[in-house]
């Protein structure tokens, strides 16, 4: 690990210290590392068209909206290759929250998210992606070798 030194003006360091307290960081270094990772991941996602990612798509929707449940189910089935798992929570008598774990080529994941978020009746949609490297590997598990993929965060 390499040590670096940075200089910050008093106002910026004051705001940063307040941020550390709100987020319960134990030290400045870990917060700065997280900020650098977030910035590098966002930049990487913007710069490449063929990257692979994992992440979550979260959205709130009104299940009383005409045909919305059918349209959402269609979007999930149409993009079954990137939709890994869904958590469904009832918020009140009309509104539900769903969080979908996604995994796949970034552009396909974004297409799925757009197909869901743009549906009439869907509100507060947010896609959170983490770029990953995909490795095909052979492992010996039990009775023989199995080929499967591993995903590893890029930062």
UniProtKB/TrEMBL annotation:
GO molecular function: DNA binding; DNA-binding transcription factor activity; nickel cation binding
All copies of domain Ribbon-helix-helix protein CopG, residue ranges: 2-41
Binding site for Ni(2+): 77, 88, 90, 96
Presence of keyword DNA-binding: yes
GO terms (BP aspect): response to nickel cation
Cofactor remark from the record: Binds 1 nickel ion per subunit.
Cofactor(s) this protein requires: Ni(2+)
Record key words, sorted: DNA-binding, Metal-binding, Nickel, Transcription, Transcription regulation
Region of interest (Disordered), residue spans: 135-155
Family matches, as InterPro entries: Acetolactate_synth/TF_NikR_C, ACT-like_dom_sf, Arc_rbn_hlx_hlx, CopG, CopG/NikR_regulator, Ni_resp_reg_NikR, Ribbon_hlx_hlx, TF_NikR_Ni-bd_C
Stretches with biased composition (Basic residues): 137-155
Transcription factor NikR nickel binding C-terminal domain boundaries: 54-130
Pfam family, one: RHH_1
NCBIfam families noted in UniProt: PRK01002.1, PRK02967.1, PRK04460.1
Record function comment: Transcriptional regulator.
Family: Belongs to the transcriptional regulatory CopG/NikR family.
HAMAP family named among the record's database cross-references: NikR
Entry protein name: Putative nickel-responsive regulator
Protein's organism: Sedimenticola thiotaurini
